[in-house]
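Follow-up to my earlier ticket, as requested here are the two runs.
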Amino acid sequence: MTHFTNTLSARLGQLQANGSETLLCGGFKGIEKESLRISRDGVIAHTPHPYALGSALTHPHITTDYSEALIELITPPFADIRDTLGYLQHIHQFVYAHLGQEILLGASMPCGISGDESIPIAEYGSSNVGKMKHIYRHGLWHRYGRTMQAIAGIHFNYSVPEALWPVLHSQENSPLSLADFIAVSYFGLIRNFQRVGWLILYLFGASPAICKSFFKSRPELMAQFEQFDAHTLYHPYATSLRMSDIGYKSKNQANLDIDYNSLSGYVESLSRAINTPYPEYEKIGTVMDDEYRQLNTHILQIENEFYSTMRPKQIAQSCEKPTVALRRRGVRYVEMRSLDLDVFDPMGIEEDTARFSEALLLTCLLTDSPLMTSQDHRTNNANQLLVAHSGRKPGLELARNGGGIGLQEWADEILDAMRPVCGVLDAGHPQQPYTAALNTQQAKVDNPDLTASARLLAAMRGRSQAFAGFAIAKSAEHAQYINGQPLDEANTQAFIDMAAQSHARQQFIESQPQLPFAEFLHRYFTQTCNETA
């Protein structure tokens, strides 16, 4: 597959010459935010997902991730990030009205857990699709443990403006169909993000410290850390331990060679992993004493088990596998998965962060993106791990093009490249919010003490607090802030109606005749199933 040869400045120049540069604006942005429900004293909640919030199986905006206590809030996509963040605030306001004495943990790394058994696996009812979601999570427990599944993050979803595609297609004189051009372009964006995505960890990583309780089920991992205090472990220059190798520490995933050079290569390599047996998982077994322990014994049970910093996404239809959806209808948007929760913001993400992320993804789209080798993958992963563990270390060097380059120098290059993109996105905004967001991040590159990870450690020292104490105190502040701004009547009623509709939808699904579960799984994995997913 050929890749584009024009430079970023040439592409922007052509768009501006055509009067088409404003087509860069208005890409749709959505946010998915995970948060652990905890008691006021900081212990993970063992209560069910609150009924008043709706069905976790069918609600479009309020669901659960791995654990019954790990709530996930999902906004619709909006062209204006202020609308996205406004909707996220509305969800928070509605959720808090039904949490009772519980609060949402504002940090990515979990507190208040005591080993795997303390983390309840999410429940989705009696239907086959509900059982599948629950059993998949059981499989994750047996493969990786539950503790690391309680880690929370922000997913930033972005779709390139639809009107931009035909213009870029024409501008490149591409021989490809428009649909193929879009797929090639999205995968170019993804490859570029894999090259420079370490910058997100440096700027926004907010998990440099971990509660010792996190290691109760895997105490052997503690040796690599320094002791912050009697209850907290850390790396002095860490940015995002959430995105480090302490989480999904699995040999099989480390050796997966997923192909990001084309849509077909991606689908084929991911499908291969889903269909290839793995000896260690065969030892676990699929069904024991008439109970499922995992969906299958393959390297990956399903696509979602592959943990990457960015995923190409297409909206799946009823009972459609994500890879099948991509193969049939191409890439609809990308999901950037490397943002930690911002413990200093009640919503978990600032507007500046979202604007910077959008500008970075557009820069990745418009910049040349050579195809990647297996060595490139290893280099990119090594850079990410290095920044996760020690991104603020003075003089830190990353690997690039077979040599080394200072993190600060490379970061300066990336931000310089983004500046004209931010200028275009600022069109019609007197306050120039994208350029302002860029300048805020430039200050963090110039002074690592301004990064979220450094601020978090400084605040813990200043308050003489362990990580758990600091995170719980900040979470209580967020709860007070949100509870102090109750949702208006119209939006409250809209969420009440959505909750009722979601429960009715789950009841309808469960009322339908159900195939034997083994047959349901067979049809799902061979995509002949016609049950609602």
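Run two:
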Amino acid sequence: MKRRSLLWLTTLVLVLSMFLAACGGDKKTSTNTKNNNDDKKGSEQAGTGPQDGGTLTYAMESEFKGLLNVNFYDSSSDAEIIGLFDDTLIDYDENLKPQPNIADWKTDDNKVYTFTFQKGVKWQNGEELKVQDWQFALETIAKIGPEHPRWSNVNTIQGATDYNEGKADHISGIEVVDDYTIKITFDKARVNNLENLWTYPLSRKEFEGMDPKKMAESEQVRTKPVGLGPYKVTKVIPGESVELTRFDDYWKGKPHIDKIIVKVIDGSLTVGELQNGGVDMTAFHPTLLPEIEKLDNVNVEKVPGLSYYYIGFKLGHFDGKTNVMDKPKYQNKQLRQAMLYAINRDEWVKAFFSGLGAPLNRPVPSAHWIAADNKDLPNDYKYDPEKAKQLLDEAGYKDVDGDGFREDPNGKKFVVNFAHYDTGNPTYEARAKAMTQYWEAVGLKSKLTMTDVNLYYDQLEKDDPSIEVFYGGWGTGADPDPLPLWGKDAVWNYPRWVNEESDKLLNDAVDMSVVGTDQEKRKQLYVDWQKLFNEEVPALPIAELYDVYAVSKRVQDVKYDVSGSNSPAEWWIKQ
């Protein structure tokens, strides 16, 4: 299954591109299928075909949180695991265009869609998938409402808000025609209603009657998850490993590999584990590239990333329904701009990512069709410490007591409290310290706090006052609409940036009455939005990277492109 359909929350552990959700995950988020039956490699080309059997060991550096259901996960490590045992209604091709998977669809107006499900698709608990399972997922998210990170992928359905607010006992825009046919009516026609829609069912047999707010803590999510994919979870050791076995009743046919073991390993052991065969597949940090490329039993896959990494400012808080920009410390635009000019991003990417990336001046990866050209942006934030100092002087941040560090415009001590997540990888603290050193070089006293990765994102979501400036990243979805990440009502808008012009541009870009089906007109609105972001810098765009994977040569028919990997059902092991 293709793991590019979700927009996922990127924690920048070793996983850099497995899922894309309509998240919006901060990361915002992928469990889609890509069929490559006409492009087989290895022994199949010699006419022998794929071989069945064997065990594949799949490694991750970051400890997974254990929210092993696509409707509740919020970390990329959990998303990697989910991608092995669940499937989605809609697939995305290498051009990030939607394709039928379990469901097909039709629409005449981009407002009313009719979806038709494949018959005979089974959940791993033996139940047949029906459209009511999708209705159940959409209603579950709607019951939770704005606090659910996928709310922005449901609240555009007609009646979803009334249902959330208790004004209706059902979502009026959802009509079950029969067990395999369902109509979804949106509140208005949009260019990307389909791409933005949440397309992951939830098993009624497993969850019906359960309080939606308690589902994430249930054994059905934590230790006994049920999906629609080619492998089923048979054993979970929380934070350490997950065992998956072949699901013989998978709707696309019996997979080849008997068992997949997902295990968490220390990043320092990755090269040795690949070399000795202890690991067959893993995403890996670019700093390991030179060593891994020397291994003769491993293939390295590099694809353009759809992720970007940024430094955000807590400008306010989320009040349960919308973002409120009420924290004054980093409201000064010149301060934020100065902090970006102070960073030598070229040097930083080369030092900490083996050069497998490049600085960017917008929160959109270059691989996306909406990406603005640098020449069209008002500012090119090339490393310029003198420019940074000038902006700080103009903004009133000056060293008034002679200690070498600047006070704020009111003459009070000013410290950049910078937060970065910790997975045990020593390079993370080193790269975070480099940021503080860049800022101190222009006179901004800085303090670094490293926090366990799982606690870190809980603090971000809850606007913990201890976090003021933070490092984060996003994987962007098949449709590059930034609204679920940067809109005023987006819970994953972690900086809590609120800007009327931003919301208007993003809403107009998907409004059929404004752009119709004119892709160039839509792109121009996104370019205008990137210009605004580039000037306001509510977050500092840092870099975009290539996604890199190591795959043992004994594992066949694993394919990657910008949309992710093909289905694990197609992988096989040379016996």
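The only thing I checked on run two: Residues 519-536 form the longest helix (18 residues). Let me know what else you need.
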